[in-house]
Structures are given as structure tokens and as C-alpha cells.
Specification:
The complex is a heterodimer. By secondary structure, chain A is mainly beta. Chain A contains no helices and eleven strands. In chain A, strands 2, 4, 5, 9, 10 and 11 form a six-stranded mixed sheet that branches. Chain A has a five-stranded antiparallel sheet with strand order 1-3-8-7-6, with no helix packed on it. Chain B has no helices and eleven strands. The chains are: A mainly beta, B mainly beta.
Chain lengths: 112, 114
């Protein structure tokens, strides 16, 4: 079963537009991670959220975790072509050993 | 400097011919993971090591094996690759197990079975 669901599956935006990607967990999260993957490459860590209501920003990317710790959003302001790629949320849960689950991914295309 | 290094970056192998993928880390992390990522899909955990303890996922085919001779290195062996094993294979490490532990990923090995 898929523990993490992402939406949308793909996104095409004009350069300069804002966008949001969502990640929903079927269980309470104990750590939520956002990664970016360029085609054919490994995953690049963006941000980690741990506390309910937490919000972190890095350059034009902001990630939030809801109070119930079951939903996270990634918001990109004034998107640029360099933001293009696949965004994956990842999570760890209590009592699942060393499992690290990934969301289904969101493919982002930014049109210049 | 790269902290999780995978070799090779690209590998082409023949159907049924054994292949080994390599992963090394300079982080001295306890946990090492192998993921399989097929086109347009999320990475799927195959197995992981916590130190020397091997943990296999229930649905990982027997065709996939792993070795961790020391803390720094971990290998993925595919004994008889099938066409369906064409995928990106990602190695990751984390300092400790499970929750609240960031995983660091290598660049991946793109395996093509012909």
C-alpha cells in the first residue's frame, strides 16, 4: 500500500508563477522530507520537517507540515526553469523499523 | 565532495548475466539502503542494512541480493537480470534508523537489461 500520496502528479507552469505540491500521509508522520530529482540522477535533499505546524524556507521554496503531521505542502514562489524536476516527499514512521517511504512524485516543468 | 558514491553511473547488461552495483559512503552511517526506481515511479525499497544486520523487504525478488563487507561499502547483486529489472538503482545512507533521520542519496546507477 502507498503510505504517501502526492498531488498533482505533474505540473507545467510559466516561469515566474507560483506553485504548490502536496504530500498526504495515511499515518502520523515522525519526519517528513522533501527531495528533488533531476532526470536520471539521484535525490537532492531540500528540507526536513518534524514538528506539527513547522514551516521552513530556502531561497524561493517553502515547505510546511500541518498540525496533525499528516500533510505537507511545498510552495515555490516565482518559479524558474532551474526548479524543473521531480519532487518527492519522503517519510519515516514510528514502529516501522528502518523503513523510509517515498511519495509518488510530482514532475514539474517550468516554461521560460 | 560526494558523500554517497555509486558506481557505475550507467550499466548495460545482458538478460540473465549477473551484475553487481556498488555503493560507498564517507559518512560512517549505520544504515545503508538500496532502492529501485522504475521510470515515472517513486523509489521502492529493496532492502537495507543496519550495521551488519540485513533486512529484506517482503516483496523483493530472490534474484536481488546484497552484501555489506564493511561500514563504507554495500553491493547490490542481481543474479539473473530480467528485462523488467531495467531501472535506476539508488543507494542511500542514514545515521540511524527510522524516524527523524535524514537519508543521503547517491547519484544512482541506471541499469539497462538487454
Amino acid at each position: 500500500s502507498q503510505e504517501l500520496e502526492q498531488s498533482p502528479q505533474s505540473l507545467i507552469v510559466q516561469e515566474g508563477k507560483n506553485l504548490t505540491i502536496n504530500c498526504t500521509s495515511s499515518k502520523t508522520l515522525y519526519g517528513l522530507y522533501w527531495y528533488k530529482q533531476k532526470y536520471g540522477e539521484g535525490l537532492i535533499f531540500l528540507m526536513m520537517l518534524q514538528k506539527g505546524g513547522e514551516e521552513k524556507s530556502h531561497e524561493k521554496i517553502t515547505a510546511k507540515l500541518d498540525e496533525k503531521k499528516q500533510q505537507s505542502s511545498l510552495h515555490i514562489t516565482a518559479s524558474q526553469p532551474s526548479h524543473a524536476g521531480i519532487y518527492l516527499c519522503g517519510a519515516a514512521y514510528l514502529n516501522t523499523g528502518n523503513q523510509f517511504y517515498f511519495g509518488t512524485g510530482t514532475s514539474l516543468t517550468v516554461i521560460p | 565532495d560526494a558523500m554517497v558514491i555509486q558506481n557505475p553511473r550507467y550499466q548495460v547488461t545482458q538478460f540473465g548475466k549477473p551484475v553487481t552495483l556498488s555503493c560507498s559512503q564517507t559518512l560512517n552511517h549505520n544504515v545503508m539502503y538500496w532502492y529501485q526506481q522504475k521510470s515515472s515511479q517513486a523509489p521502492k525499497l529493496l532492502f537495507h542494512y543496519y550495521d551488519k544486520d540485513f533486512n529484506n523487504e517482503a516483496d523483493t525478488p530472490d534474484n536481488f541480493q546484497s552484501r555489506r563487507p564493511n561500514t563504507s561499502f554495500c553491493f547490490l547483486d542481481i543474479r539473473s537480470p530480467g528485462l523488467g529489472d531495467t531501472a535506476m538503482y539508488l543507494c542511500a545512507t542514514s545515521r540511524d534508523a527510522g524516524m527523524n533521520t535524514e537519508a543521503f542519496f547517491g547519484q544512482g546507477t541506471r541499469l539497462t537489461v538487454v
